[in-house]
Amino acid sequence: MDSSTTADVAVITGGAGGIGAATAAILREDGWRVVIADLDLDRAQAEASRIGAAACAIDIADKRSVNAAAAWVEREIGPCGALVACAAHLENPHRPEDQDIAEFDRIVATNIRGTFVTLTAFGAGMLQRGRGSIVTIGSITALNSSPLVAYGPSKSAILAMTRDFAGAWGRKGIRVNCVCPGPTRTPAVEASYARGERDPKVMTAQTALGHLVDPRDVGHAVAFLLSERARSITGAVLPVDAGTLVSQLWSLYGGLPA
Question: Does the reported pTM lie above 0.90?
Answer without folding.
Answer: yes
